[in-house]
C-alpha cells in the first residue's frame, strides 16, 4: 500500500477542490440573491414588471450576488477568463466584440449616465466570460453545481408560496406571475443536466408552481425544454413515438383543463395576448429604434422603449446593425448547439447529456425572450442563465488525472 493511501489527496488536488467549492458556493449564493429578495416586493410591482430591479432590496441582492461571484472567479481562477475568451466560437466572440464596441454608445448624454452605462456594459462582458469559466469545471462538479442551483431556484417558489400564500389574480404577493415563474423555469432547465430523483422532483415541483400562476411563457418553455432534451438525448424509439401519440391524445382529452390553466378562457387574456396584447409596447420600441437607429447603449433604454421584448430591446440598445447582429449570432449559436447535441451522441454519456440539456435550455430561453423585458441582463435568473448557456467555450476531451469523486463538490442524493 502506498503512502498516498494514508495521507489522502495531494495538496494540489485539495487546493483545486477548494477552489471549485468556492466558485460553486458563490454561484449558489448569486442564484439565491437573484430571486429571494423578490419575496419582499410590494404591490407597486404587481402591474409593473418592467420596473423590476429599479431599486431596493432586489437591486442590492443583484449587486451583492454579482460581486460575490466575480470576486470568487477572479481569486480562484484568474486565468479562466482569458482561457474562455480564447476558446469561444466565432459567433460567441463576435457577440463579445459587439458589446465591447457598444461602449462608444455610452458617450452620449450627461457624464453620470454615461459612467453608469459604461460600468453596466463592462460588467456584462466580464460576467459573460466569468460564467463561461463554469464550463471548465470537472463535469461531475458542474452537474452537481447546476443541480443545487436548481434546488435554490425551486426553493424560492416554495418559500414564496409559504410566506405569501397562494396566488391571487395570478400574483404571488407582490410578485408578478412571469417574475415568479422565470427562476422556476431556469430550475427546470438546470435540473436536466443531471439524472436522478432529485432532478425529477425539481422538474415536477417547478412545473406545478409555474402552472399555478398560469405563466404561459414558462409553461411552454418548460415543456419545450423537456421535449427537446428527450428527443435529442435518446433516439426516437417505438416506445417514445407511442408516448408522443398518447401525450397528444391526453392534451386533446384534457384541453378544457389546459385552457383553464393557460387562461385561454379569460376574455381579457385570450390566446393572442402574448403577441397582439403587447402591440402598444412594441410600437413604442419600434419608435425608439426609428429615433435612434445606432442604439442607445446597454441599460440606457427606458422600460417602455424596450417594448417588453428581449429581441426588440437588444436592437434598441445596440442599434439596428449591432442589435440585429447579436440576434442573428444568437440564432447561429443556437444552431451550433443543436449540431453539437446531435454530434455528441457518439461521445460519453455525460458529455451528450450536457450538450442536449444546453440545447434544450437555449431553445426554451430563445422562446421566452419574446416575453421577457431583456435578452442580455445581469439582474435576473433568465438573463444570467442565458449568458451561461450561450457562452460555453470549446473544450477538448482530456484524460482525467484523478477519479471524479476526489474533485467534485459535495454530492446530493438522487
Write up this protein.
- This protein has 18 helices and no strands.
- It has 414 residues and is mainly α.
- It has one domain.
- The longest helix has 34 residues.
- The chain is globular.
| Strand percentage | under 5%
Structural class: mainly alpha
Low-confidence stretches: 1-8, 44-54, 397-414
What value does the Rg take, in angstroms?
22 Å
Task: Provide the number of structural domains.
Answer: 1
Helix and strand string, N-terminal first?
HHHHHHHHHHHHHHHHHH
How many beta-strand runs?
0
- Spatial separation of the terminal alpha carbons: 33 Å
Mean pLDDT, all residues: 82
The coarse overall form would be globular
Helicity range:
55-70%
Largest sheet: none
Q: Supply the number of helical segments.
A: 18
What are the SSEs and their pairings?
Layout: H1 4-7, H2 11-35, H3 56-76, H4 80-86, H5 90-101, H6 111-133, H7 139-164, H8 177-191, H9 197-212, H10 216-233, H11 238-253, H12 255-261, H13 279-291, H14 303-306, H15 310-343, H16 349-368, H17 381-390, H18 404-407
Pfam families: Wzy_C (PF04932)
InterPro entries: O-antigen_ligase-rel_domated
Protein name: O-antigen ligase-related domain-containing protein
Amino acid at each position: 500500500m502506498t503512502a498516498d493511501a494514508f495521507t489522502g489527496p495531494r495538496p494540489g488536488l485539495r487546493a483545486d477542490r477548494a477552489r471549485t467549492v468556492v466558485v460553486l458556493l458563490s454561484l449558489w449564493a448569486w442564484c439565491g440573491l437573484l430571486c429571494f429578495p423578490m419575496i419582499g416586493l410590494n404591490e407597486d410591482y404587481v402591474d409593473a414588471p418592467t420596473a423590476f430591479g429599479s431599486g431596493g432590496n432586489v437591486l442590492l441582492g443583484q449587486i451583492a450576488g454579482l460581486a460575490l461571484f466575480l470576486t470568487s472567479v477572479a481569486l480562484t481562477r484568474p486565468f479562466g477568463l482569458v482561457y474562455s475568451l480564447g476558446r469561444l466560437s466565432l459567433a460567441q466572440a463576435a457577440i463579445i466584440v459587439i458589446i465591447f464596441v457598444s461602449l462608444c454608445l455610452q458617450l452620449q448624454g450627461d457624464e453620470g449616465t454615461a459612467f453608469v452605462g459604461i460600468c453596466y456594459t463592462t460588467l456584462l462582458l466580464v460576467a459573460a466570460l466569468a460564467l463561461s469559466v463554469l464550463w471548465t469545471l470537472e463535469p461531475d462538479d458542474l452537474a452537481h453545481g447546476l443541480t443545487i442551483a436548481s434546488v435554490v431556484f425551486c426553493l424560492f417558489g416554495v418559500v414564496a408560496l409559504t410566506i405569501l400564500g397562494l396566488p391571487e389574480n395570478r400574483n404571488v404577493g407582490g410578485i408578478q406571475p412571469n417574475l415568479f415563474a422565470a427562476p422556476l423555469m431556469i430550475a427546470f432547465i438546470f435540473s436536466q443536466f443531471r439524472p436522478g430523483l432529485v432532478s425529477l422532483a425539481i422538474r415536477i415541483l417547478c412545473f406545478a408552481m409555474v402552472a399555478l400562476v398560469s405563466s404561459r411563457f414558462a409553461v411552454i418553455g418548460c415543456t419545450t425544454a423537456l421535449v427537446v432534451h428527450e428527443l435529442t438525448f435518446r433516439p426516437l424509439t417505438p416506445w417514445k413515438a407511442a408516448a408522443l401519440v398518447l401525450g397528444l391524445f391526453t392534451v386533446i382529452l384534457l384541453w378544457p383543463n389546459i385552457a383553464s390553466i393557460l387562461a385561454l378562457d379569460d376574455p381579457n387574456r385570450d390566446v393572442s395576448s402574448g403577441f397582439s396584447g403587447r402591440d402598444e409596447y412594441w410600437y413604442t420600441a419600434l419608435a425608439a429604434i426609428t429615433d435612434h437607429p445606432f442604439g442607445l447603449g446597454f441599460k440606457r433604454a427606458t422600460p417602455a422603449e424596450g417594448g417588453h421584448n428581449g429581441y426588440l430591446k437588444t436592437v434598441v440598445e445596440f442599434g439596428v446593425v449591432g442589435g440585429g447582429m447579436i440576434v442573428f449570432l444568437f440564432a447561429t449559436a443556437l444552431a451550433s448547439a443543436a449540431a453539437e447535441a446531435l454530434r455528441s451522441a457518439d461521445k460519453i454519456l455525460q458529455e451528450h447529456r450536457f450538450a442536449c440539456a444546453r440545447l434544450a435550455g437555449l431553445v426554451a430561453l430563445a422562446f421566452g425572450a419574446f416575453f421577457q423585458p431583456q435578452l442580455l441582463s445581469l439582474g435576473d435568473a433568465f438573463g444570467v442563465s442565458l449568458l451561461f448557456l450561450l457562452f460555453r467555450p470549446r473544450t477538448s476531451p482530456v484524460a482525467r488525472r484523478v477519479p471524479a469523486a476526489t474533485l467534485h463538490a459535495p454530492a446530493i442524493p438522487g
